[in-house]
Design brief:
The longest helix is centred in the C-terminal third of the chain and has 22 residues. The chain has 22 helices and 19 strands. It has four domains: 207 residues, P-loop containing nucleotide triphosphate hydrolases (Rossmann fold, 3-Layer(aba) Sandwich), CATH 3.40.50.300; 157 residues, P-loop containing nucleotide triphosphate hydrolases (Rossmann fold, 3-Layer(aba) Sandwich); 54 residues, no CATH class; 83 residues, RRM (RNA recognition motif) domain (Alpha-Beta Plaits, 2-Layer Sandwich), CATH 3.30.70.330. It is α/β, with parallel strands linked by helices. 43% of the residues lie in helices and 17% in strands.
Length: 566
């Protein structure tokens, strides 16, 4: 069956690959960009990720390259390693029958692998500006035979400080080469770059259509800062996302939030700038293969990610501006799929939300945060649906003998209720009818809380998520039994529900940390002395670990004894 791609006059080898990939109809950016590039024009295209822009330039590149010449004939620059790899893979798939050699070059990968690819005669090089510049300086990459250059996500590359590298790279290419520039936004710096290096480029814009994101349901929840984590977990339990990217503002917050989610039983992991490339690739591989369903990321770490099947984007921290918001939510609702974009907003951030709404010409729908009762009802409904499927499938027949034996002691209703209880609790869900946790809405009843102290803190790299994960596992308690966790330089104070404090001290007093182990003990209560009794207007001192206090007392006694001897 012929598709509209056959009407573009492409090589049979390319149409064969397109058919195998399942492309049925060109996207708006492809309909405009492919004919223009095949006719030799330079183009400036405003098109965010998810609109099919990779095929929009990869198809003309494969048409242009002469596979009989073992020289670099096309160059694609991308802002991140992940995007470079994804563009290279997509280009290889499109040109698989054209005998075109595609080589990704990026930082974090050994030079030897890239050098072998260059010596073997790469036709298309897809790389990050920094690594491409390294090869140019080493003399291992010559660009004098390049006939086609693409700047992919140009605004991202400029935001990351690559403008000087990009200009130096473009200066190494022949003046007669063809060029395509793709960018989600068109700030003055992009326009100046186009004027300097391009020849009467045709302008293509699909950004407004993409910015509206008609298939993405955009909502926000208002919550207090202290209650954001509980709000997030309630939303996750209600929505049950197939795959979600959760955006945080800082690297430390992304790591801590991922650790908290892991401790509460969610399949989550983080990517951020402090991670090695190998670790980032392992985390992304787990996310793409659904081994984890939640990817917690910063804006910088998520740049260039092209994961087509993301059902939800959640802004745990609201983005700083409309461009960042559009970039984030553009990772869901792609290529005809529906998506959910959820933003958590504190009262102080409502004004920033209104600015974003004005810039994107769309009002986000406000929703009420789900309550514990809402989540419990949703869990029950979900469990009943799963149970109905199992009963209808007939796969439970082998367990009939067990049921028959139990029927001699119990009624069918009792057997069913007990089996449901075991199956329900095995999922990690709270028991049906259980009281809501005191942590809901970010508030803890202090009368119900006990304060513990860990003999390790910030200097040993302690993070709240590490403590929750270790203690919850060893003591067999849910993450909702934890209150505030105050990480100081050499100690960490942990609030837990009083009903589980003794269990924690008995079963989980030794806490597994990244740098070894820590020990939990009961913290000394804060002094009841009023602040006004402090001398010289000093602030009341925070409590210290019991062991530390004893050390100071013994040191004071020792110093007094030494003075007496003198």
């Amino acid at each position: 069956m012929k598709t509209p791609f056959h009407e573009l006059g492409l090589k049979p080898e390319i149409t064969k690959a397109i058919d195998a990939l399942g492309f049925e109809e060109p996207s708006p950016i492809q309909k405009q960009a492919i004919p223009a590039l095949m006719n030799g024009f330079d183009i400036v295209a405003q098109a965010p990720t998810g609109t099919g822009k990779t095929a929009a330039f990869a198809i003309p590149i494969m048409e242009l390259i002469d596979p009989t010449k073992r020289t670099v004939q096309a160059l694609v620059l991308a802002p991140t390693r992940e995007l470079a790899v994804q563009v290279a893979e997509a280009s290889h798939s499109i040109g698989r029958h054209c005998r075109v050699n595609v080589l990704p070059v990026y930082g974090g990968q050994a030079y030897e692998h890239q050098l072998r690819g260059l010596r073997a005669g790469a036709h298309l090089v897809v790389g990050t500006p920094g690594r491409v510049m390294d090869h140019i300086r080493r003399g291992t990459l010559q660009l004098d035979t390049v006939r086609f250059v693409v700047l992919d996500e140009a605004d991202e590359m400029l935001d990351m400080g690559f403008i000087d590298d990009i200009q130096l790279i473009l200066d190494q290419t022949p003046p007669g080469r063809q060029m395509a520039l793709f960018s989600a936004t068109m700030p003055p710096r992009i326009q100046a770059l186009a004027r300097r290096y391009m020849k009467s480029p045709q302008t293509i814009a699909v950004a407004h259509e993409a910015q509206d994101v008609p298939l993405t349901h955009q909502v926000y929840y208002e919550t207090q800062q202290r209650g954001k984590r509980d709000a997030l977990t309630n939303i996750l339990d209600m929505q049950e996302p197939h795959s979600a990217i959760i955006f945080c503002r800082t690297r430390s917050e992304a790591a801590d939030l991922a650790s908290m989610l892991q401790a509460r039983g969610y399949g989550a992991d983080a990517i951020h700038g402090d991670m090695s490339q190998a670790l980032r690739e392992r985390v992304l591989a787990k996310f793409r293969t659904n081994k984890i369903t939640l990817l917690v990321a910063t804006d910088v770490a998520a740049r260039g990610l092209d994961i087509p099947d993301v059902s939800h984007v959640i802004n745990f921290d609201i983005p700083d501006d409309a461009d960042a918001y559009v970039h984030r939510i553009g990772r869901t609702g792609r290529m005809g799929r529906k998506g959910e974009a959820i933003t958590l907003v504190t009262p102080r951030e409502l004004r920033l939300l209104r600015v974003i709404e004005k810039d994107i010409h769309k009002k986000l729908k406000p929703l009420q945060l789900p309550t514990y009762e809402d989540v419990a009802a949703r869990r029950t409904t979900s469990f009943m649906e799963e149970l109905r499927k199992t009963l209808r499938s007939g796969t439970g027949e082998p367990y009939g003998l067990v049921a028959a034996e139990l029927a001699q002691e119990f009624s069918p209703l009792q057997i069913a209720a007990g089996a449901i209880q075991l199956a329900y609790e095995a999922t990690g869900r709270p028991a049906l009818g259980a009281a809501p946790p005191a942590a809901e809405s970010g508030r803890m009843n202090q009368a119900e809380m006990t304060r513990l102290v860990l003999d390790a803190g910030r200097r040993r790299g302690v993070r709240p998520g590490d403590i929750i994960k270790s203690v919850a596992k060893d003591a067999g308690i849910p993450g909702s039994d934890f209150g505030n966790i105050d990480v100081q330089d050499d100690a960490t104070f942990v609030e837990v529900r009083s009903t589980v404090a003794s269990k924690i001290l008995e079963r989980a007093a030794i806490v597994s940390l990244r740098g070894g182990e820590g020990h939990l003990t009961l913290a000394r209560q804060k002094s009841a002395r009023p602040a006004s009794s402090d001398r010289r207007g000093q602030k009341p001192r925070d409590e210290k670990p019991a062991a530390q206090s004893k050390f100071k007392k013994s040191k004071t006694k020792k110093s007094k004894a030494q003075k007496a001897k003198r």
